[in-house]
Every structure is written in C-alpha cells, then in structure tokens.
Amino acid sequence: MDAACDITVVHSFAASANRPKMESAVNTAEDAKTVKYSEQCARARVIFQPIGVDLFGACGERGQAFLGKLFHRYAVYNCTGAYFAATAALQRECWERFSVALHRSLAQQFGRLLPVVLPDTGAGEDVGLEWGPLS
Questions:
Q1: Greater confidence, 127 or 6?
Q2: In 3-state terms, what secondary structure has residue 5?
Q3: What confidence tens digit (pLDDT) does each residue in 5-28 have?
Q4: Structure letter (DSSP) for residue 114
Q5: How many whole angstroms separate alpha carbon 96 and alpha carbon 102?
Q6: What are phi and psi for residue 123, nearest 5 degrees?
Q7: Model-level pTM?
Q8: What is the distance between the alpha carbons of residues 4 and 49, in angstroms, rounded to a whole number?
C-alpha cells in the first residue's frame, strides 16, 4: 500500500516560549492536516501520515512515532548480525539527517525572502529594497 507524508512546519516565534505550548501547536498542526487530507487519501487507498515539526525541531507525537518506526526499520534492515548493536547509532543519524535537511530547506526558503539592497544604477535614482535571494 502506498503512503503519503505531509511535513508541516509550525512557526512558534509568536507563541509563548513554554515548551508544552509549542508541542501542542505542532500536534494541532498534525490534527489539521489529518482533517484536511485523511478522507481523500482513504478514498485513494493511500496511508496518510502528517508530520508536524516546530521551527526549533520539536516533532509532533504522531510524526515522531512514524519517523521513529521508519528510522528503526531502516536501521534494522541495514544493521544485521554482528552489526545489530549499531542500530541505535544509525537511528540517531537518521534523526540528525532529517533535522539538517529540514533546516536547510527552511534556510533556503528564508533566503528567498530576505530584503536585498539593489546597487546604485548611477542614474541618481533611489532603487530601494527588493525581496529576493542574496547574490
């Protein structure tokens, strides 16, 4: 059976710095994605898995459980026999790679929205600011 994952990143800067509230926001985001897509995926016979992630890296309960199982299966598949003790290290590496990939993607998106000062054209006109990638 096919599966569909939807990773949603929650912006918690505006929220309280209280850790339980951040986790609640991530879980709420997962719930919203479930409501939005689960029926459509069920009709298509596709397993739907929302993965909510806080901007600082906290993962929602269902997303964390799903990724934990996924990374565990990957580690067990790749670490058999005498190497079975390495599964915990490989699972940790999967979490680290997921975190790096997520933050790299967010950094690229933010980079597209940075204010960029345009160079003076020499015509004495004020070109001001534009939003776009840094060159």
A1: 6
A2: strand
A3: 898 888 766 544 445 555 688 888
A4: S
A5: 10
A6: -90, 5
A7: 0.67
A8: 6
Does 66 score more than 70 pLDDT?
A: yes
Radius of gyration of the chain (CA): 21
Please list the alpha-helical segments (H only) found in the chain. Answer: 19-43, 61-78, 87-111
One-letter amino acid at 23 equals E
Rounded Cα–Cα distance for residues 51 and 31 (Å): 10
Q: How far apart are CA 114 and CA 128, in angstroms?
A: 14
DSSP state of 59: B
Quick one: what percent of the chain has pLDDT higher than 70?
70
Classify residue 125 by its DSSP letter: -
* Domain segments of the chain as ranges: 2-113
Q: Which of 24, 32, 25 is nearest to 6 (CA)?
A: 32
Specify the 3-state DSSP secondary structure of 91: helix
